[in-house]
């Protein structure tokens, strides 16, 4: 999901500047791509003042303190000469809004004239024809529906970036929960899902309020979009109608978007010092939901984060302090997965109670402010009464991850073993759980490894049969990708991946499109580590045999009419093979494979995903079994 908060354009620098207040009246006819705006702005400015306003709008008049004045337009800029505090009235309209029609749509925030160097507050009243609804972020002040159409008024007195505007032929359902107005604005085919969405939303808000702090907005609205979007906005989320219809969204994307109202919206991100909000939201929403839904699912998610990181080329890695937003797959591996794992290590080390209190303090101290990793560090130091500089320096300011080996393990007199950090550079401060297995049961220990090599000894009540390091996947480590089952992400993250498209004409075109949908960058490379092979089934299997490459695995060879799978050849290269019986199958693979990068294989039948999975993993490397 994309969180639209306005922080990306220097909110910290704008926080000390008085916001511009808008009182706007908007008339919209989505079927005609038509919008008319009369906006009264209250602001203080000196000299020539530039307002950002989409070039699709034609300004008919400008008044300053009630007197008509001249203005100039240059592309998406409107310029007025001002002196001191003023009330500015602007009238403008557009008949060219391609993202708006009677099935629903949106208008980007630059529909509201706003100086680049200011935040905004607003009271916006919008009118649409019968059958349509109008929404902008903020508190719903009033709404009426008559034979003449629908009108709603929204207010936001918290300085923020300019609001997006959304319309659609919505069926509205509402639930008031502990003073918070919850609403769904759904297209007709989704209306039956409204009550489930509302009840789940109420539960999530109550849960996060107890864990983090009071819900920071007057309401939360869920709006369905005709476009395949996923946007998080203050007090609302705007998601594609097909996505909202999926049964798992209520336990995945929905809690994630609700939690973003605390992390990223109410507490804004200091992007220049690293985006912490995606990792924290991923941990407290996605990971927490996995814990609730199924035993072992949370550990599987952490293993997935490590597997994704193992596939990341080292030259594509970055420190968490350098992560801004998910611009590509590599940045997501770091900014979401690794960052979430850092929060998991804090919780594991200090316990759930201290972890929650630290985040409550962080929320309390930084709501309606811009915050960075340093503020998170300060909150944890306050609650733990410890200096955490070594931890945050290692995990936030450095790229990379520790690489760990287990050696010299003996069980002759208790247990003795050596742990080594073999990565380049300084040691990471690690708290590592150790399980020592004996016939009488498992002894759990936690060792503190702060140097590159350290030997540990433990007495045992019976002769040890095994030693397992980090058995529950609680420590962020760089795994050896060669020891892990290959997944699609091994190829998609490799900027040097080779591409082989078998066929010409339509097959060549479709194969190229499939490669471009997966690879980052989209152009094929000339590396020797990964290869993407695409084509129709018969030519693909002939090619694999002729080049002595691994054949299609027997378990999936006859399933479906289109499939993709990963394998490793004798030279250690990772292969991704995509084959289909016909062109429609290749089109289907192009559509779905970007969503299954964490998988080893995907099988499709008649354009639908039939099966997917990951090849079994090898024995954990950081385990010793004693005979």
TrEMBL record:
A Pfam family hit: Peptidase_M1
Annotated Gene3D superfamilies: Neutral Protease Domain 2
Alphabetical GO biological process terms: peptide catabolic process
GO cellular component: cytoplasm; extracellular space; membrane
Residue span, Peptidase M1 membrane alanine aminopeptidase domain: 255-395
Gene Ontology MF: a single term: zinc ion binding
Domain of life per record: Bacteria
InterPro entries assigned to the protein according to its UniProt record, in alphabetical order: Peptidase_M1_aminopeptidases, Peptidase_M1_dom, Peptidase_M4/M1_CTD_sf
Protein name: Peptidase M1 membrane alanine aminopeptidase domain-containing protein
């Amino acid at each position: 999901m994309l969180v639209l908060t306005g922080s990306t354009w220097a909110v910290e620098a704008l926080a000390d500047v008085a916001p511009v207040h808008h009182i706007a009246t908007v008339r919209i006819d989505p079927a005609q791509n038509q919008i008319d705006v009369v906006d009264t702005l209250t602001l203080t400015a000196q000299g020539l003042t530039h307002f950002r306003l989409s070039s699709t709008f034609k300004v008919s008049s400008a008044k300053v303190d009630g007197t008509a004045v001249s203005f100039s337009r240059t592309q998406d800029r409107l310029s007025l000469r001002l002196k001191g505090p003023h009330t500015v009235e602007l009238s403008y309209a557009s008949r060219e809004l391609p993202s708006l029609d009677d099935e629903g749509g949106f208008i980007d925030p630059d529909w509201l004239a706003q100086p680049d160097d200011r935040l905004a507050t607003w009271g916006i009243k919008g009118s649409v024809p019968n059958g349509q609804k109008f929404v902008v972020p903020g508190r719903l002040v009033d709404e009426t529906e008559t034979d003449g159409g629908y009108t709603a008024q929204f207010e936001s007195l918290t300085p923020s970036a300019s609001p997006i505007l959304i319309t659609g032929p919505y069926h509205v359902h509402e639930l008031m929960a502990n003073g918070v107005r919850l609403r769904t604005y759904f297209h007709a085919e989704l209306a039956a899902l409204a009550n489930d969405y509302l009840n789940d939303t109420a539960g999530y808000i109550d849960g996060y309020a107890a864990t983090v702090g009071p819900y920071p907005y007057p309401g939360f609205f869920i709006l369905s979009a005709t476009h395949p979007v996923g946007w998080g906005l203050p007090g609302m989320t705007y998601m594609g109608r097909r996505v909202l219809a999926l049964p798992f969204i209520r336990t995945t994307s929905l809690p994630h978007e609700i939690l973003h109202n605390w992390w990223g919206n109410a507490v804004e991100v200091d992007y220049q010092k690293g985006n912490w909000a995606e990792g924290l939201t991923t941990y407290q929403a996605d990971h927490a939901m996995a814990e609730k839904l199924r035993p072992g699912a949370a550990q599987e998610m952490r293993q997935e984060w490590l597997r994704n990181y193992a596939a990341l080329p080292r030259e594509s890695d970055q420190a968490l302090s350098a992560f801004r937003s998910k611009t590509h797959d590599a940045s997501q591996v770091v900014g979401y997965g690794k960052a979430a794992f850092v929060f998991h290590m804090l919780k594991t080390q200090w316990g759930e109670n201290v972890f929650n209190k630290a985040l409550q303090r962080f929320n309390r101290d930084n709501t309606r402010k811009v915050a960075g990793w340093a503020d998170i560090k300060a909150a944890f130091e306050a609650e733990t009464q410890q200096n955490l500089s070594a931890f945050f320096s290692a995990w936030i300011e450095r790229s990379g991850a520790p690489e760990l080996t287990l050696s010299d393990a003996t069980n002759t007199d208790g247990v003795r073993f050596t742990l080594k950090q073999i990565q380049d550079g300084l040691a990471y401060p690690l708290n590592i759980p150790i399980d020592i297995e004996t016939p009488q049961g498992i002894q759990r220990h936690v060792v503190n490894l702060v140097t590159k090599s350290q030997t540990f000894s433990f007495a045992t009540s019976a002769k040890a049969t095994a030693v397992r390091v980090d058995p529950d996947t609680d420590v962020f480590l760089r795994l050896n990708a060669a020891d892990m089952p290959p997944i699609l992400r091994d190829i998609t993250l490799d900027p040097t991946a080779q591409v082989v498209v078998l066929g010409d004409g339509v097959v060549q075109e479709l194969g190229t499109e499939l490669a471009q949908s997966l690879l980052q960058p989209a152009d094929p490379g000339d590396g020797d580590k990964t290869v993407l092979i695409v084509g129709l089934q018969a030519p693909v299997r002939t090619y694999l045999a002729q080049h002595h490459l691994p054949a299609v695995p027997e378990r999936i060879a006859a399933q479906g009419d289109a499939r993709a799978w990963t394998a490793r050849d004798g030279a250690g290269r990772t292969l991704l093979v995509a084959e289909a019986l016909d062109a429609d199958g290749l089109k289907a693979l192009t559509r779905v494979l970007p969503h299954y990068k964490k998988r080893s294989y995907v099988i499709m039948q008649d354009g639908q995903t039939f099966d997917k999975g990951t090849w079994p993993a090898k024995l954990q490397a950081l385990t010793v079994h004693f005979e």
